[in-house]
Amino acid sequence: MDYGIYLINMKVENENIIFDLMCEKKDFYDHFFSRIKNVVLATFNGYIDILSNISLLSDEGIMKVVIPLNELKSCSDQTVFKLKLILDNDEVFIDILNHLNDTFKLVIDGSVLELVPQENDNLIINKTSLSELAFVVENVQMSSNCTTFFGSHSFFFLNNSVKFINCFLENEVTKEQLLIPKKSFVLLEDSTFEISLAMKNYPLYQGNWYFLTEVKVGEEQFTVKMKTDINTALQTKEIFTENGELFVHNVAQNQNKELLINISKFNEQLIQTKIHHLSIDNNDFHIKCEVIPNENEQIFIKKLVFINRKTEDKHMVHLQENDHDNGFLQVSVPFLRQSFFETDGIWDVYLEFDTNGLTVSQRLSFDSANDKSAGKFISLPKTIYNSKGSIKRARMYATLDNNLAVLIKDSAIFGDISYIHHDGDDVIVKGSIEILDTDFEIKNIFLANEKEQKLIL
User: Fold this and answer.
1) Which residues have CB under 8 Å from 183's CB, separation 6+?
2) Are 60 and 138 part of one and the same domain?
3) What CATH code is carried by the domain that includes residue 400?
4) Which long-range contacts (CB under 8 A, 24 or more apart) does 52-55 make?
5) Is 327 in the same domain as 427?
6) Given CA atoms 290, 291, 292, 296 in this order, what sign does their dihedral have?
7) In whole angstroms, what is the distance from residue 121 CA to residue 283 CA?
8) Which of 103, 45, 105 is nearest to 72 (CA)?
9) How many domains does the chain have?
10) Do residues 421 and 332 share a domain?
11) 454 and 446 in contact (C-beta within 8 Å)?
12) Does residue 261 share a domain with residue 141?
């Protein structure tokens, strides 16, 4: 029943919570206010008397109620404040209606007591754990290689000060924590915040990384989660490199609306390639290749990279700016100045390019857009050599996934000794030498020991 008793003010002072109650019905104030004995907490299990000091302000229709904060430890969720009125030996419980529009919070023994305006106007306390509070992200935006999170928090308590210690990312499995620099985590006076992250600056590995924040309330320090207030699916992603590999981070939320970053390998292709011409002629490697960026991204092709499939050795061929023009890469590589083919084996060919501040290496495909072209390229082995005297056989071919590879073998020189004869102090040796596909002239024949020291004949 509405007896016209309203909460008009509330504050915390000297470890007490103080209610100012107004009675709008003068008859009730004159006849019954003096008979109010106590304040009780109405819970699901009944009424709990709490220690309180009640005083009347004469002729003002106002009653001041002072309750020690420790008395509120017995509050449960959805506890209702009531006044206990004694009429003869009967107890009558009277509602206190909340006419304050603001939400007030108290922290007592790690629990948050929240006094929130209700539809029925009753003065009710909601109880939660301090660790259940969260920073709430309301918007996510992505700019050039940077993701920014915008949100708000509600860490304001009548009885305790709050200090924000730090914000960090925690891996779901390993529990490793990576601190977010304070310059990247901006708290504003209006209880909003911004977090700006460039994923390439963090040594994140595959898995889920959750946002957590440490706060100090009074003398107690707590870790709280960061949640989202975004109902639509989050599509924000940022590509970055780590130890030469390409990764993508996706901003997401779990079923509890906890904010996380999922790190996974980026398997999509940023460019499509199509080889129009490929040959080895006169000891030069020739290639003409169409290069099409995805999603109209601007790319800058820097290198042609050969990687040995077994040893993982890398050999870089630096390209000139004019090698890539009008969507075509056309380049000739003289083997005479190269040394990578001194190591036998399969050398996979990559294009290295810059895009959006990232350096990316991608396999050079014969035709990225046409799976049916796989296996349709075949070439004859060719003899190649460099200025150091290394002579090898090279054969270009298409791998099973239609990418370019070069097979290097030490089978370019064939030699045969057909006759050895001693004639006094002389040794007569007859034989033949053939270098496949290459004209040559023998300039010298010598003996060498195990240390490759030469003895001229």
Assistant:
1) none
2) no
3) 2.60.40
4) none
5) no
6) negative
7) 90
8) 105
9) 4
10) no
11) yes
12) yes
Judgement on whether residues 107 and 153 belong to the same structural domain of the protein = no
Say which residue the tokens 């977090």 belong to. 195
Task: Give residue 29's domain range.
Answer: 5-127
Would you write out the chain's pLDDT as a tens digit for each of its 457 residues? 556 788 888 888 888 888 888 877 666 666 677 677 778 888 877 888 887 777 776 666 688 888 888 888 888 888 888 888 888 788 888 888 887 877 788 888 778 888 777 666 778 888 887 777 778 888 888 776 678 888 888 777 777 777 888 889 999 999 999 898 888 888 887 778 888 887 767 777 888 999 888 888 777 788 888 888 776 556 566 777 766 677 777 888 888 888 888 888 877 788 899 999 999 999 999 999 999 887 767 888 999 999 999 999 999 999 988 888 888 999 999 999 998 888 899 999 999 888 877 788 889 999 988 766 666 788 888 888 888 878 888 899 999 889 999 999 887 677 777 778 887 778 788 877 777 777 777 777 777 777 777 766 5
Return the CA Rg of the chain: 40
Residues 208, 148 share a domain: yes
202 touches 228 (CB < 8 A) = no
Single pTM value for the model: 0.57
